[in-house]
Amino acid sequence: MTDPHNTPEPNTPDLVQEDQKITKDDPRVVSRRWMLMGFGALLNGVVGLAVAVPVVRYLLGPVKRKGAYNSWISLGSLEQFPAGETRLATYENPFNRPWDGETAKTACWVRHTGANKFQVFAINCAHLGCPVRWFPQSSLFMCPCHGGAYYADGSRASGPPERGLFEYAYKVVNSELHIDAGQMPTLSNPASPGQQAGNNNLPVINNSPKGCGSCTG
Amino acid sequence: MHWLKDTYNWLERRIQLEGPVKDAILHPVPKNTASWWYVFGSAAFTLLLLQVVTGILLAIVYVPSGAEAWSSLQILNHQLPLGWFLRAMHGWGSNFMVAVVLIHMAQVFFFGAYKFPRELTWILGVFMLLMTLGMAFTGQVLRFDQDSYWGLGIGASIASRVPLIGAPLVHIMLGGPIIAGATLTRFFALHVFVIPGMLLAFTGLHVWMVLKLGVNEWPMPGRPVNRKTYIKEYHDLAHNDGIPFVPGAFWKDLVFSGAILAAVAVCAAVFGPYGPTGQPDPTIIQTVPKPDFFFLWLYSVLSYLPANLETPFLLIAPVLGIAVLLALPFYAGEGEKSWHRRPVAVMVLALVAVSWGTLTHLATFTPWSPVMNAWSGATVPAKFVHNLSPTERQGAVVFQSKQCRNCHALGGEGGQRGPALDTVATRLTEDQLIRQVVQGGGNMPAYGTSLSPPEVTALVRFLTTLHPVGQPGATDASRADAETNSPPVKAQAH
């Protein structure tokens, strides 16, 4: 390929090939080098493992014990939820980051059954988590994704969901409705993991800037 | 031009790639592989490069922050010169890439190219398909609009169905307890670093093996693959009836890749970028989330599965499907390559293609979903209320106001979750209609508690008028019989 007229510099040697030609060493020296290399590999393995363990812990960071994400949140004054009606309420999720923006908000359906008795349903369909809508005329929650439907009390009416709507534990504190919330409810993560009395000593967080979302309309 | 050659020589003396590159491009391939059927792999590679380049260009502007991702896309779409075009190129590039990768895979399967000695090339390809789909899903997440938000919700709900570790799995996937900024950043890392890195490495190895093992020869019936003789047969074929890979076969790859790039650009220019749809505010529930094109089939499957099959299907079917694909070259590594001698393979391919097409088509009009605004948006056609009694007309009002229309079409308008009711009176008698409305059943909610008795009466009266002119409504034969043949005592009781 190289034309002698156009080559002012000598051919660059292929050093790798040159190397392979000259490695004719004493077998004992070779075996010692292999042993040292094995030691190097072992060292890297040990260090790698030591470095990998913190990485695993870092990656598992979001995993917390059951209920650790939950706290009592105020949905605002009881007056927003007239007896016999089901209204949309929104709150800021208690566990959030400064860069969450509007995704920190969460919505839920509050059904006031009368005499300070409530049912607070997660917005997420029990099938695959899409937001269910309340239709007061037919007293049904309908899901826009795969056609799940629920009755007014949250029980399954039809469609693919295998259970009723997820329900938050609630309590009434100083004429305000509080719910035990904090994580997206799914089949293995209940809306309120500890509905038992033990959870009542959780701190009350009041971060419900807008309160009832459907009251304006 | 002396200096050009001098520069080349100077470089080559240091890089020394000329030899290997020449070996690679001039290696002989069987003449019949220079076919338009063999262009999809290289086209997928070209699209991958397009995605890398357009992806980097988008990353210059995109902000992977829960609070700002959506608005940074708006700025790309509306404020930066040609930002919309780059988004469109990346979005359409992904559609084309998924499509071309699937076609490439179907072609390789159809031509028996996964057989000995190309088993590992196929296996790498299966992983590359999964990564391509992974890129498609994570890319949809980065759009961080309503579809993306609720798509993540669906992903989390699927993850939660995994036995034992479902709960922590959801939190690892979301990066916290809810879909939020932490979710976006981890999907950003997956989409921009992890999956592309692996995909590029796998692609390098995949192409390397294609070069080393040779392009699969055109399958001929009656020329089965035999592990003992294949290598020699292929060698003879490539050397006796072969041509150099470049330019003999490569020119078609080049032309097709150019055409594909042009097609992406035309689609991008004509149809524009994908979304973003509404902002990812979970309190805006007036939304109908839908996945991107390549996951529509899954959306259909999830709607049609019975509740008790859903979790097993979601968790077992993908594992089984991938296992079958990975095992394919081992249980069918020898034998006929030609589709003329592989009827089962042809039928499987046809079945998969037809199922995929049907499910995707269904998902474009989602007959399983209630049409949320049909009750207030679609009017009852005049012909259905013509000449009706006041009670029957009141029933039509109940029909609309109780959202029956969201699931039941009248005159071709309304939901398709339940049957169209244009001729329901020919199928159900009045008694059966009452029972169906009050008790529900067959996937219909019971309306006994949300309808008053007069409302039920009016509604059912209206429904009994829904039969074609000249075709009477359904009646209970035993009732008519009872009226004509009833004993006198009973008749007096009426």
From TrEMBL, chain A:
Alphabetical list of Gene3D superfamilies matching this protein: Rieske [2Fe-2S] iron-sulphur domain (2.102.10.10)
Protein name: Rieske Fe-S protein
Superkingdom: Bacteria
Alphabetical list of InterPro entries matching this protein: Rieske_2Fe-2S, Rieske_2Fe-2S_sf, Rieske_Fe-S_prot
Residue ranges annotated for the Rieske domain, each copy included: 113-179
Keywords: 2Fe-2S, Disulfide bond, Iron, Iron-sulfur, Membrane, Metal-binding, Transmembrane, Transmembrane helix
Pfam families in alphabetical order: Rieske
Taxonomic source organism: Silvibacterium bohemicum
Biased composition (Polar residues): 185-205
Disordered: annotated segments: 1-23, 183-205
Transmembrane segments: 34-60
GO MF annotation terms: 2 iron, 2 sulfur cluster binding; metal ion binding
From TrEMBL, chain B:
Region (Disordered): 470-494
Pfam families recorded: Cytochrome_B, Cytochrome_CBB3
Alphabetized InterPro entries for the sequence: Cyt_b/b6_C_sf, Cyt_b/b6_N, Cyt_c-like_dom, Cyt_c-like_dom_sf, Cytb/b6-like_sf, Di-haem_cyt_TM
A GO term from the CC aspect: membrane
One annotated GO molecular function: electron transfer activity
Transmembrane segments: 36-63, 92-113, 120-142, 162-180, 187-211, 254-275, 313-332, 344-363
Keyword annotations: Heme, Iron, Membrane, Metal-binding, Transmembrane, Transmembrane helix
Residue span, Cytochrome b/b6 N-terminal region profile domain: 7-219
SUPFAM superfamilies found in the cross-reference section: a domain/subunit of cytochrome bc1 complex (Ubiquinol-cytochrome c reductase) (SSF81648), Cytochrome c (SSF46626), Transmembrane di-heme cytochromes (SSF81342)
Biological process, per Gene Ontology: respiratory electron transport chain
Designated name of the protein: Ubiquinol-cytochrome c reductase cytochrome b subunit
